[in-house]
Design goal:
heterodimer, A: mainly alpha, MetI-like fold, 12 helices, flat, B: 342 residues, alpha/beta, Rossmann fold, 12 strands, globular
Chain lengths: 311, 342
């Protein structure tokens, strides 16, 4: 187990190296720079700015400097937000994205699994149809439209929740719902399909033949087996929610990291682009690792091994 | 011998979009303590539906009891509540299935799967149940049960899984064991071992076994009595000797004739021409009439009554009627003597 995790962490560093390299050169290949704007800056000033930020050096030297700094967990100063380092930006805004993301994932998982199980138990009956209509709506309505609808009805018309900003738990409910709906619907469909399959399997018959009640049969024997596809979907889900939250963050005026990430690209704020990309990549890679470990814990057939013959 | 189960005029149907499928039609049989009743017949003849309705394992709907009763200790399983059924399942009857690869929960340790029933039905503590589980595994012939009980099904071989299934089914000393094609998915040497195990356990525990199979070799080997099913009906029942040496129904003749024989030099295997009837719209008369080489006019329109040729053997066939012409069974069904297995 320990060996396995060590090996996987090693792979994470290799992946990170490639991600940093590719992002760095892609970013440089895009036309424009942090100091190009509609109003022409005198060449002398632009030269001095480039010099101050080390942009006049050959690309390969910049690349090397950048790698060295990343190892030291220093993403450098932001080019656009004066007096702020990228580390400051991440530290300041990530907590909002994290809270929002966790709430959304929790909501999507708990409600999604519940709806899926419900639909499977009431297969081809009212409960099934209701849950699946909800799921189809959830998948087809884009989150930004849902966000606007939620704001209009629950915040503006009914006044139940604050319309924007992120100061308290109440503030987080509407954006979390908007962010969670699509993955929730997806999980519900996934769970329904896999639960139906499990309910028809022989070992459920075995469990019933033992005289277990249908409740015990479903909980003890059904859900644990049926949840496996949902667990494997968790890795991409975490990423989608964390990176995809920028739309929701914009609509609800939440000063989160997703917002910074998108703005940095339009601004050609090189250091912020790199910093947020690396940060998100680390998050993604570790969440996939965690999901794999959880998967191994739930399904004993998946062996977590460091190398051949080592269990 | 004490009667442990009595099935009277049982009919079970499935409601489908295409119409009502009458899977089991008017089935009667009884089961005595310590005996093995084999139910044979081709796929779709209603064998599995019959035994699954005895345990009420069919999901209802689409399945439905149309008529009849299943009596156990003078209580009717057909009308029992779900709570009563929970006490019957596992406690009064156990069941093992065809494919041991899929009939154990892959994410649960063998020990827990064995002890679940013990804890529920016999009120054992976890510790006692685990000890009893180890004992059961030893009883069904699994080596190192102390360490095996903490393993998952995927760490067991096919034969061992079927042994574990038998241990689960017999954990609460049920009076009836239903084995739905228990050896079909196993290779031949393991088949013999499993059958032998079942026979040994039966002698020790006085369990009555209902054995579903379409392998007549297994029947000859393991059964005391045989019920031959076709088109949702039992067409012939008798002791194993009667069925193999004095079969009366042309379908039984066909089944026996289809068995490959050791000294048969012909390349092609015998078969019964035609296909089983569509149970959405079952024939009014004998279900086998369409494929029967001896069919008469009456066979198409009237279902024959059972004719008793001994205390134990009865056959539903018009050929046994006194007005019917005398027909002798074809010679080829006796060649090779199935009794050689014993």
């Amino acid at each position: 187990m320990f060996k396995y995790i060590l090996k996987r962490v090693g792979f994470i560093f290799i992946s990170l190296f490639f991600i940093v390299t590719i992002t760095f050169f892609l970013m440089q290949a895009a036309p424009g720079g942090p100091f190009t704007s509609e109003r022409k800056v005198p060449p002398k000033i632009e030269e001095q700015l480039n010099e101050a930020y080390g942009l006049d050096e050959p690309l390969i030297i910049q690349y090397k400097d950048y790698l060295v700094n990343i190892v030291k967990w220093d993403f450098g100063p932001s080019f656009k937000q004066k007096g702020q380092s990228v580390n400051d930006i991440i530290n300041r805004s990530f907590k909002y994205s994290l809270i929002l993301g966790f709430e959304a994932i929790f909501l999507a998982l708990s409600v999604g699994v519940f709806l899926g199980v419900l639909a499977a138990l009431y297969h081809n009956k009212f409960g099934d149809y209701a849950a699946m209509i909800f799921a189809v709506l959830g998948i087809s309505v884009p989150s930004f439209i849902l966000a606007a609808v939620l704001q209009y009805t629950f915040a503006f018309k009914l006044g139940l929740f604050p319309i924007a900003k992120f100061d308290s738990f109440m503030h987080s409910i509407l954006p979390a719902v908007a962010l969670a709906t699509t993955p929730l619907a997806f999980i519900a469909r996934l769970m329904r399909a896999s639960m139906l399959e499990v309910l028809n399997s022989d070992y459920i018959k075995t469990a019933k033949a033992k005289g277990l009640s249908s409740r015990v049969t479903i909980y003890r024997h059904g859900i644990r087996n049926a949840i496996l596809p949902v667990v494997s979907y968790l890795g991409p889900l975490v990423t989608a929610i964390l990176t995809g939250s920028f739309i929701i963050e914009k609509i609800f005026a939440i000063p989160g990291l997703g917002n910074e990430f998108v703005e940095s690209i339009t601004n050609r704020d090189y250091t912020v682009i790199m910093g947020t990309t690396v940060f998100f990549s680390i998050l993604l890679l570790f969440s996939i690792l965690i999901v794999d470990i959880i998967y191994g814990l739930i399904d004993p057939r998946i062996k977590i091994t460091g190398s051949k013959g080592d269990q | 011998m004490k009667k442990v189960l009595e099935v009277n005029n049982l009919s079970v149907s499935f409601q489908t979009y295409g119409g009502e499928v009458q899977a089991v039609r008017d089935v009667n049989f009884e089961l005595h303590e310590g005996e093995t009743l084999a139910i044979v017949g081709e796929s779709g003849s209603g064998k599995s539906v019959t035994v699954q309705s005895i345990m009420r394992l069919l999901s209802m709907p689409p399945a439905k009891f149309k008529s009849g009763s299943i009596l156990m200790n003078d209580e009717d399983i057909v009308t029992m509540s779900e709570a009563q059924m929970e006490k019957v399942r596992g406690q009064e009857m156990g069941m093992i299935f065809q494919d041991p690869m899929t009939s154990l929960n892959p994410t649960m340790k063998i020990g827990r799967q064995i002890t679940e029933g013990l804890i529920k039905h016999q009120g054992m503590s976890k510790k006692d149940a685990l000890e009893r589980g180890i004992e059961l595994l030893r009883l069904v012939g699994i080596p190192n049960p102390e360490s095996r009980i903490h393993q998952y099904p995927h760490e067991f071989s096919g034969g061992m899984r079927q042994r574990a299934m038998i241990a689960i089914a017999l954990s609460c000393n049920p009076k009836i064991l239903i084995a739905d094609e228990p050896t079909t998915a196993l290779d031949v040497t393991i088949q013999a071992q499993i059958l032998e195990l079942l026979r040994d356990l039966q002698q020790d525990m006085k369990t009555a076994i209902i054995l579903i199979t379409h392998d007549l070799g297994v029947v000859a080997n393991a059964a005391d009595r045989v019920a031959v099913m076709y088109g949702g009906k039992i067409v012939e029942t008798g002791t194993v000797d009667e069925i193999f040496y004095a079969p009366k129904h042309p379908y039984t003749w066909g089944l026996l004739g289809s068995m490959p024989k050791l000294n048969d030099t012909k390349k092609e295997l015998q078969s019964i021409p035609g296909t089983p009837p569509d149970l959405k719209d079952p024939p009014k008369g004998c279900p086998f009439a369409a494929r029967c080489p001896y069919a008469m006019k009456v066979c198409d329109t009237y279902m024959p009554e059972y004719q008793h040729s001994s205390d134990t053997q009865k056959t539903a066939c018009w050929l046994l009627d006194e007005r019917a012409p005398k027909v002798n069974p074809p010679e080829n069904i006796f060649v090779g003597g199935v009794k050689e297995h014993e």
